[in-house]
Amino acid sequence: AQSVTQLDSHVSVSEGTPVLLRCNYSSSYSPSLFWYVQHPNKGLQLLLKYTSAATLVKGINGFEAEFKKSETSFHLTKPSAHMSDAAEYFCVVSDRSSGGYNKLIFGAGTRLAVHP
Amino acid sequence: SQTIHQWPATLVQPVGSPLSLECTVEGTSNPNLYWYRQAAGRGLQLLFYSVGIGQISSEVPQNLSASRPQDRQFILSSKKLLLSDSGFYLCAWSALAGVGEQFFGPGTRLTVL
């Protein structure tokens, strides 16, 4: 069965400093992995996705993530945090279910705070 | 491009009242559709999914039901709301083909008093 572990429930950074949000996954086959962002009282927005092509994936708003099979990790990074990056971030793995669709398995989320 | 709409955006309902939340998708055909609930401070819980008109599968037993009367319309309902039904309800869609990413609507904040 697939699973996702987000290693930090809260991360706090200063504006202009790098962001690192950590995610480890468990999968019995080559997974599809995603990062979503959720601002308060908003829906989830897809930041980026890994689908067994390039291991370094670039997403929107300057975010990127690197798939490391040997470490079963898919950490999210950004070189320089902006105040607008403050939000909840979810690492997600896609699990091929028996119901004819790809079930998403969500991590517990990491709340990112950005300070001036 | 595809868009997904949910309404209402917020709703305050008394215990025991009925509920109807609507979700519509534009710009795609034959999508898979999903209803999630996000309780305060918790992750997302999949409530229902649908792979076609009239085809509804429930992930967890609960006080809610779902219907898909049209290809791009998904409705979440309840006959009698409970306090525990409060939460943030999200509708999502995914393509039949693809790697499984889902695209979420803006959500409905439901408060049951």
Structural write-up:
The complex is a heterodimer of chains A (116) and B (113). By secondary structure, chain A is mainly β. Chain A is built from no helices and twelve strands. By secondary structure, chain B is mainly beta. In chain B, 0% of the residues lie in helices and 57% in strands. In chain B, strands 2, 4, 5, 6, 9, 10 and 11 form a seven-stranded mixed β-sheet that branches. In chain B, strands 1-3-8-7 form a four-stranded antiparallel β-sheet, with no helix packed on it.
The description of the largest β-sheet of chain A is:
6 strands, mixed
Beta fraction of the residues of chain A? over 45%
Question: How many H/I helices of chain A?
Answer: 0
Largest interface: A-B, 24 and 23 residues
Through-space gap between termini of chain A: 41 Å
Can you summarize this structure?
The complex is a heterodimer of chains A (116) and B (113). Chain A is an all-beta fold.
Topology:
The complex is a heterodimer of chains A (116) and B (113).
Chain A: E1 3-6, E2 10-14, E3 19-21, E4 23-26, E5 32-38, E6 44-50, E7 56-58, E8 64-68, E9 73-78, E10 87-96, E11 102-106, E12 110-115
Chain B: E1 3-7, E2 10-13, E3 19-26, E4 32-38, E5 44-52, E6 55-58, E7 65-70, E8 73-78, E9 87-94, E10 103-104, E11 108-112
Parallel strand pairs in B: 2-11
Antiparallel strand pairs in B: 1-3, 3-8, 4-5, 4-9, 5-6, 7-8, 9-10, 9-11
